[in-house]
Specification:
This protein starts with 7 loop residues before the first helix and ends with a strand. The protein has one domain. The protein is of the alpha+beta class. The chain contains four helices and four strands. It is elongated. The mean pLDDT is 83. The chain is 39% helix and 17% strand.
Length: 128
């Protein structure tokens, strides 16, 4: 007579899938909850350091914002689009790095957005 139920191999696969899902959820939660400000300031500096005007990178403001409430432009790079699409995992929150420059009177501050768990650049705010 054949036994009904799950075999050992099926149980191992189910446990592995559960561990992957739980591990991913914990990683997304932790990377959204604990934001390393200096890490994001360094990333923003590496992306936007163009030498035009003085920027006060040591006084940059790093916050966690809901991206749908912000005006931003996503570059046409596939990696940035994928990273932006992954924000649904944490409820649509992104890390916002705002840097003041000596051109704020004309253009406003430099604002860059990052995915908190992939740490990838996903866009910037337009400067008018």
């Amino acid at each position: 007579m054949k036994q009904s139920g799950f075999g050992t191999k099926s149980k191992i696969i189910i446990i592995a899938v559960i561990l992957v899902v739980v591990g991913t959820a914990i990683y997304v939660w932790a990377s959204t909850t604990y934001v390393n400000e200096m890490n994001y300031i360094k990333r923003a500096y590496a992306i936007h350091n163009q030498g035009a005007g003085n920027a006060w990178w040591d006084e940059a403001k790093v916050t966690l914002v809901k991206l749908k409430d912000e005006s931003y432009i996503t570059p046409s790079v596939l990696n940035a689009k994928i990273s932006r699409a992954l924000l649904f995992l944490n409820g649509g929150y992104a890390v916002k790095v705002e840097v003041r420059t000596d051109m704020d009177g004309l253009l406003g501050p430099v604002i860059l957005y990052f995915n908190p768990f992939t740490k990838q650049y996903i866009g910037g705010a337009p400067r008018y």
